[in-house]
Amino acid sequence: MQERYEPAAVEADAQRFWNDQRCFEAKEDAAREKYYCLSMFPYPSGRLHMGHVRNYTIGDVLSRFMRMNGRNVLQPMGWDAFGLPAENAAMANGVPPAKWTFDNIAYMKAQLKSLGFALDWSRELTTCRPEYYRWNQWLFLRMLEKGIAYQKTGVVNWDPVDKTVLANEQVIDGRGWRTGAPVEKREIPMYYLKITAYAEDLLDALSQMQGWPERVRAMQANWIGKSVGVRLGFPYRIEGLGEGVLHAFTTRADTLMGVTFCAVAAEHPLAAHAARHNEKLAAFIEECKRGPAIESELATQEKKGMPTGLTVRHPISGVALPVWVGNYVLMSYGDGAVMGVPAHDERDFEFAKKYHLPIKPVIDVPGREYSLHAWAPWYAGHGRCINSGTYDGLEFQAAIEAIAADLQRLNLGEKQTTWRLRDWGISRQRYWGCPIPVIHCAACGTVPVPDEQLPVVLPVDLVPDGSGNPLLKDEAFLAVSCPRCGAKARRETDTMDTFVDSSWYFLRFACPDNDKAMLDARVRYWAPVDQYIGGIEHAILHLLYSRFWTRVVQELGAVEFKEPFANLFTQGMVLNEVFFRKPDTGRVEYFNPADVEVTLDPTAQRRIAVLRSDGLEVESGGVVTMSKSKNNGVDPQALVDEFGADTARLFTMFAAPPEQTLEWSDEGVQGAFRFIKRLWKAVHDHVAPGACVPLDKSILNDEHRAIRRQAHQTLSKITDDIGRRRTFNTAIAAAMELLNALAKFPQRSPQDRSVIQEALEIAVLGLSPIIPHVTHALWRALGHQRALIDEPWMTVDLAALQTSEIAMVVQVNGKLRAHISVAVGADEDTVRAAALADPNVQKFIAAAPVRKVIIVPGKLVNIVV
RNA sequence: GCCCUCGUGGCGGAAUCGGUAGACGCAACGGACUUAAAAUCCGUUGGGCGAAAGCCCAUCCCGGUUCGAGUCCGGGCGAGGGCACCA
Asked: How far, in Å, is the CA of A848 from the C1' of nucleotide B3?
C-alpha cells in the first residue's frame, strides 16, 4: 500500500472495478427483498451544481447501505430533458435544442460517474427520446378516452411582437422578457387533465402517508384547499337575459340573512352583459382584467368596485340585492361570484364602507358588541344567528343545516365542496416538448392519433428564433392525413407541460427497454419507490402530479398502488456567502466567492473580503442559497478535481444534517480532506508491519476491551444514524471519534494490532456508503480478498459492549456534583450509598436532611434535600 | 394577514424517549518537526471567580410544569419558508 493518499488514482480504480463487475445493474429477484432508491432526476442544464451533489450523495449513501444490508437495490438515473432553457440556449447560440440537450447530458453523465454514484446506468432514460415520450402520448390518449383529459379555453401570456406565448417567468413587470412589449392575455383552446376529480382522494391519502415529512403533507393539503359550504342561487330576471340564477359559493351560509349585495368577477357573464351599454363599467372591467402582474400586489391592492345596475333576489327573503363588479372576486374560484355579507366578512366590510352599502349584523357572540364603525376580528367568528328570522338562535352548524335544507326545497342551493386545486392545463405552445397526439381535420374536427401511429415524433433539427413555435413552419411535421376520413389535415403543434414527463418516470425505470408497453410486470417487483429524495421546491407540483398520474395508471391496471413514493426525504438547500459591489451608478455586481479572499483583521477582529483580481474590498451580503443570479455557486467539478469525489461527498454529508440547509465552507472541505488522509495513514501505518494474528477475545486486557467497546458502539451508532435517523453527519462524527481514539492507542503487542485491525475495519466499512472509493482501497489494504461493496454490513458484537463498571453522575437538587463508578447490576441501595459517600456530594447535603433520592439505572442519581 | 419550521460557543453543528449542555469539525492561540514555509503531530479554547480542588453564570426573553427543562406547556421577540382577496 502506498503511503500517500492520491484520490484520482484511488477513485479511478474503484470506479473501474464497479463498472467491470456491473455491480449496480439491478436484477429482478423475487426471492430477495427489493429497495428502490430514487433521487429526483436532473434537468440537463449543462453542469451539475452542489445541490445535485448533495441530493445524489444522500441517495447513494442509502443505496449502498441497504445493499450491504442485503436488499436488492435499484438506484437508476435519467434526464428530465424537455423544457424551455434548451429553447433559450438555441436562440442564443443558433443550435437545435436537441443537440444542446444531448451535449449537456453527455457532460453531466461524466460528472455523475466521476462522483462514484452506485447508479444502474443500464436503465438510463431520457424524456426527450421517442422511446420514452411515446408513452406520454399513449397514456394521454387513454385519458382522452376516459374523459380525464379534455379541451377548454385557457388564458395565456401573449407577446404581440414576437407573436409567441410566454411562460409566467418570461413576463417581467407585465412585459415580454425579450421584446419589452406589454404582454396581452389571450384565450386559446388547451388540454386539461381532470386532477380535481382526484382531489378528495389525494387529500385523504395524505394523512396515511407516514413516510412523508409533515411539512410536505401540509403544503399539499393547503394547495388542494378543500372548502365545505353551500352553493347558493340568487334568482334574477334581467332584460336581454331573461330569468336566471346567479350562483355563489359560501362557507358561511349561516350569515345568509346578512347579505346586502352580490359581487361578481370582472370576467363574469353578468358583468359582461351589464357593460354592453355602460362604457364606464366596460372600462372598469378592462382595468380589472389587466390588474397588477404580481400576485402579492393582487392580494393587497385596494378593493374597488362598480355597480352593474342589475339586481338579483335574495333566495330566502326575496329582497332585491344590487350586483356589483368587484376587483377582489376571482373568476377562477367557485362560480366567480360572492354573496356580500359586510357585517361578517372583512373584505365585504371594507367594500361596503367604501361604497356606502348597508351592513347588517346577523351573528351574535356573547359579551361582544358590534360596531359599524370599525372591523373587529370577532365579526368573522362563529356565533348564534340574530336578525335572521326563523334561524334566530341557531349555532353555526345548525344554521347551515337549516338554511341548506330550505334552499334545497326552493331549488336555490345545495351543500357543495369547493377546491382551490384546479385542473392541470398541460398544453404548451412550445417546440421542445412532447407533441400532443391529436390531428385537426376540417371535416372530423379534433381526432386522436391512433395508437399504431405512435409515437408522434418531434423533429430534432429545428432552431427556435423567438418568433413562435417552429413546428408551425415545419410542413413535414404539420402535413398529415386525417386518421378518420383520410383527407388532408393538420397536426397539433402544442406540446405537453414538462411536468408530464416527470410524473411517471419513476415507474418506467422498472422497464425502460419495453417497446411494446408503457409498463410491464417488472414494475410490480420494483415499485413503489421505497425512498425518494429531492428538494423541497418540488413539495407541491411534481409530487402532486406524480400522485395523480399514479392513480390514473392504477385505474388502467398497470400498478396496484396509488402512492408512488413510500418514503420522501427532502434535503436542504446549499448556501454560500455572497459578495458584491454597488457602484454609484449602475446595478449591483456580484463576485464569485472563489475569486474573493477573506482575511481576518487581527486588530479590529473584522473580516475583510478582497477581490483577488484587483485587491480592492468587496461587501458581503451574508449567506444565501447558491444561485446564478447571486454568482455564489461552487463548481462541484473543481472540487472533485482538486480533492476527489470522496472529499466532496464527505463534506456535503458532514457539514449539516441532510434535511437542513448546508453552508459552503472551503475550510470545511479541507477538514474533510484531512480526515480522509488521516484514515488512509492510520490504515497504512497499521498494515505496514504485515498481517496480524486473528483476534483472541479470551486474552484481552482492559485497554483492548475499551477500544473494542468503542469500536462496536461506533458501529452500532453508524448503523442507526444511517439506517434509521438519516443523520449522516453524526455517523461521520462517531467514526472520527473512533479514529481519534485509535491514534492514541499504542500498537505494541500482536494482540494490540488485532484489536486495531478490527476497529479499522469497522471505521472503513462504516464509512463506505459515504466515501466509497477510498474505503474500497483501504479494505483491500486491510487484507480482504472480497470487494467492500460485496461485503455484508458488520454486526455489532454485543459482548464487546459489556462492561463490569459503569459511570454514573450524581446530582444534588438537579445540579451535577460528582461522578461515581459502580458495578454493573448494582442494586439501588449500593448505588445510593456510593452517591451519598462522595465527599463533594457530602458538602452539599450536609446542611439539610435528604428528602428523596431518584435513581435512573445506569445513568444518574439525583439527591433532593 | 394565515399556516409551518427554527433560535445552543467566534463559526457549522451535537445532545436520539425530560437525565453529565457544547460531541465532531472549522477557526484561533501555544508548542513540536523544519534553514524556512507548506504539510503533519501534540496541547488550549463558552463567560466569570480561584494557586488548585472546585464554585457561580450560561441553550433568544418572561413565566409555568417537574426531583431534574436546550428538550414539555403558556406568552413575547427574532429569523427562514409556504400560502396569499379562496368567499
From this structure: 52
Find which nucleotide's C1' atom is closest to A250's CA. Answer: B87
What distance in Å separates the CA atoms of residue A8 and residue A11, rounded to the nearest whole number? 5
Give just the sign of the alpha carbon dihedral A602, A605, A610, A615. Answer: negative
Q: What is the ipTM for the molecules in this complex?
A: 0.95
What confidence tens digit (pLDDT) does each residue in A813-827 have? Answer: 999 999 999 998 889
pLDDT tens digits, residue range A109-136? 999 999 999 999 999 999 999 999 999 9
Query: What cell numbers appear for A638 in the block?
Result: 473543481
Integer-rounded Cα Rg, in Å, for chain A is 34
Q: 455484508: which residue's cell?
A: A792
For residue A814, give the DSSP letter: T
The residue behind cell 473494542 is: A708
With H, G, I as helix, E, B as strand and everything else as coil, classify residue A745. coil
C-alpha triplet A494, A495, A497: angle, nearest 5°: 125
Query: How far: A299 CA to B2 C1' (Å)?
Result: 13
Residue A838 dihedral angles phi and psi, to the nearest 5°? -65, 130
Nucleotide nearest to A328 (CA to C1'): B85
Q: Which residues, other chains included, contact A172 with Cβ-Cβ below 8 Å and sequence gap of 6+? A: none
| Protein-proximal nucleotides of chain B (any atom < 7 Å from a CB) | 3-5, 11-16, 19-21, 23-29, 39-42, 54-56, 67-69, 81-87
Cell of A70: 442485503
Other beta carbons within 10 angstroms of residue A168's beta carbon come to 9
On the 0-12 / 13-18 / 19+ scale of CB atoms within 10 A, A296 is: exposed
